[in-house]
From TrEMBL:
<protein>
    <submittedName>
        <fullName>BMP family ABC transporter substrate-binding protein</fullName>
    </submittedName>
</protein>
<dbReference type="InterPro" id="IPR003760">
    <property type="entry name" value="PnrA-like"/>
</dbReference>
<feature type="domain" description="ABC transporter substrate-binding protein PnrA-like">
    <location>
        <begin position="26"/>
        <end position="306"/>
    </location>
</feature>
<feature type="signal peptide">
    <location>
        <begin position="1"/>
        <end position="20"/>
    </location>
</feature>
<dbReference type="InterPro" id="IPR052910">
    <property type="entry name" value="ABC-Purine-Binding"/>
</dbReference>
<keyword id="KW-0732">Signal</keyword>
<dbReference type="Pfam" id="PF02608">
    <property type="entry name" value="Bmp"/>
</dbReference>
<dbReference type="GO" id="GO:0005886">
    <property type="term" value="C:plasma membrane"/>
</dbReference>
Length: 353
């Protein structure tokens, strides 16, 4: 009888200990745009909702449309004071505010999206979006008839420049005669400016456009003009079904669930995460019926090669806009070189500044 009681007591203690080891997560998210932007912030929020389903995530909250700057510091501090033990800040401009608040809250884990500064309780995360960008460039290069492709871009920072270059390398790999014209809006979320920028490249003769923006406005401008369009962030077919070809997309749940588990289990450590298509964090949305079967076959073959590492997007020879070799034949750019990219490759029209 004593042995039975002892066994039961041991089982109860073990179960209680296992439950106690899984710390309950209260996660906070800071968004740069509204959750209804149908793009960047919407994609992050979908990831949050998936993470929230985990048994050890007690709750998650978000604050949307937070300006990058002093306001961000105040709002991140507010989340810290309200008992959140895991805070995600989801835009590049939140980097310094995140570091500042983290210094005063050592017991909270912070994860900053797309930045490069870390601390003992701060990690960074991003995805190798340049991989599906390259694939979308293959689509654009095959679909253009005018050999003029437009790119509506947000800010001239390495993240955006890297995407433009990857897209252009994809275009040129199947259509050496095509060029990519870049127009900067200097905004992340401004449907009016995005639409105007798209119209400007359409006026210049582009019959395919793509973007690094947070709304589907450029796609809608393309549809109105009878052009093709490639979205970003999420599958955007419903916004411009007569123009839509595909989208490089984010699946933030693939990362958010892993980070939440690490924090809950006590295995989290500060690191700089930069996952690619092999982790499922980034992908290319299914190609629409506007894309011919032979093009779909090429893209699928390239996608397999990118995922298994056979094809590395930034492998030389790569020339810059002046025709100078910047990546010699056989050499692949390092992560550090890609993360600090500040030049445009041959075939891009516009300035990277």
């Amino acid at each position: 009888m004593k042995k039975i009681l002892l066994a039961l007591l041991t089982a109860v203690l073990f179960t209680a200990g296992a439950s106690a080891a899984d710390k309950q997560i209260k996660a906070g998210f800071i968004y740069v745009g509204p959750v209804g932007d149908a793009g960047w912030t919407y994609a992050h929020d979908q990831g949050r909702l998936e993470m929230e389903k985990l048994p050890y995530v007690e709750k998650s909250t978000y604050i949307e449309s937070v300006p990058e700057g002093a306001d961000a510091t105040r709002i991140i501090t507010g989340l810290a004071k309200k008992g959140h033990n895991l805070i995600f800040t989801t835009s590049f401009g939140y980097m310094d505010p995140t570091i500042e608040v983290a210094k005063r809250n050592k017991d909270i884990i912070f994860m900053h999206c797309s930045g490069y500064k870390t601390a003992e309780n701060v990690g960074t995360y991003f995805g190798r979006m340049y991989q599906p960008r390259y694939l979308s460039g293959v689509v654009a290069g095959k679909m253009t008839k005018s050999n003029a492709i437009g790119y509506v871009a947000a800010f001239p920072i390495p993240e955006v420049i890297r995407g433009i270059n990857a897209f252009t390398l994809g275009v040129k790999s199947v259509n050496p005669a095509a060029t990519v014209k870049v127009v900067w809006t200097h905004t992340w979320f401004d449907p009016g400016k995005e639409r105007e920028a798209a119209e400007s490249v359409l006026d210049a003769g582009a019959d395919v456009i793509t973007m690094h923006q947070d709304t589907p406005a450029p796609l809608q401008a393309a549809e109105k003009r009878g052009a093709y369009a490639i979205g970003y962030n999420v599958e955007m077919k419903k916004f411009a079904p007569k123009a839509y070809l595909t989208s490089p997309v984010w699946n933030w749940a693939a990362l958010y669930k892993v980070v939440a588990e690490q924090v809950s289990k006590g295995t989290w450590k500060s690191e700089q995460i930069w996952w690619g298509m092999e982790h499922g964090l980034v992908d290319l949305a299914p190609l629409s019926d506007l894309v011919p079967a032979d093009v779909k076959k090429i893209v699928e073959e390239r996608k397999t090669a990118v995922k298994n590492g056979t094809t590395k997007v930034f492998t030389g020879p790569i020339k810059d806009q002046s025709g100078k070799i910047v990546v010699p034949a056989g050499k692949t750019m390092t992560d550090a070189e890609m993360l600090s990219m500040n030049f445009f490759v041959e075939g891009v029209q516009g300035s990277p500044k």
